[in-house]
Amino acid sequence: MSSSPSPLLSARGSGLALLVVGLCWLAVLFDGLDMFIYGSVLPHLLETRTFGLTADQAGDLGSYATFGMLVGALVAGTIADRVGRKKLIVCCVILFSLASGVCALAGSVEVFGLGRTLAGLGLGGLLPTAISMVSDYAPRGRGALVIGLLMTAHHAGGILSAYVAKWLIDPVGWRAAFWVCVLPLLFAPVLAKFLPESLSFLVAKGRGEEARALAERYDVEVPAAKAGGAGDRWVNLAKLFRGDEWIQTLLYWVASFGGLLLVYGVATWLPTLMRAEGYELGSALSFVVVFNLGGIVGMLVAGRAADRFGAPRISALWFALTAAGVFLLSVHMPMTVTMIVVFLTGVFLNSAQTMIYATVSIRSHPDHRATAVGWTSGMGRFGAVFGPWLGGQLLASGNGDRGFTAFALAGLSSMVFIGLAALRSARQVPVGSEQELVTAH
Known about the structure:
- It contains 17 helices and no strands.
- By secondary structure, it is mostly helical.
């Protein structure tokens, strides 16, 4: 295979890159729809007291899905190494689609919670696997751009969830929204038929000839074989705590905890909190659309800003701006002003966490960079579990008006911790390391 660089249009025109990115984009779109649909129907569930649902129970239900995502993300790599990236993506789509059917049929809060937990397992496993897949087939030198484009699908799914709720809840009922989330089940056979297997998986399994044939046919590079196994991963984890590096590692982890608490807390409770501020349900769901439009824009501009000014600076600044925007949402403002604040908050919030991963990637030594990013993401997911629960507890105690303030404080804490970590490591940046956009919600 020729190692000469191929033009972007040629690489994209190969067909395979477009096919893989397009199919994975649709899979992540359905992932976002299923993730955000709970927050979109939640105000209706609370208003009608479905299942006798209370605010604190609603927060618990929101945490079930994020806990499932935590488990799914942690085991996805091991499962993918056994069955392949393609099979895991197909299985994840089937799992969260069927789990939405469980929610649609649920006759009790316990069954509904089971459905959301199972959905979280599929949602958590899909995203990192899809990122790995598109990275294999991305045009040379365009990996970060392709991952950023893939992540726009997650926020497009959030937009779709708001419209599904607006169009179906009043005339048909909340169960119809979850039946819509079952429809991606029809997409699974399309993935099974047309999505190629990951090149990384083929190489790891010793199917080098098959990998080279695909790569040569479609003008993509064959990934290098990765040596080592679980033992190396634990050795690399230990390296994150040698000497004084344990302080920096914990700072990254705490920053990630606060960042994902903010991301998933706001994603779950935004419509409900906006209703608590006096907005109608239709307006509250419109905020979800605007918020996710901001997320799409933010994903596209974050990498460029980091390339120019440095990921650590952008991460800290983005969290400060996010905290300001989230706090302003607790103030009842004219609709136009509120929409602008929601949009800008979406721009900064949804890419602030990404900048943490980018900072960790840049500041870590190459031999344990993947481990550093993976564990920072994993520790952060405990914040993803805590955020929805926290919002429910605040509403249940009659302090719903303080929900935005609590989430804003989480943003400020992440700003402080990522800033401290960056300052500590400023003199230890590995020579020759490159800034890269690492997206791993």
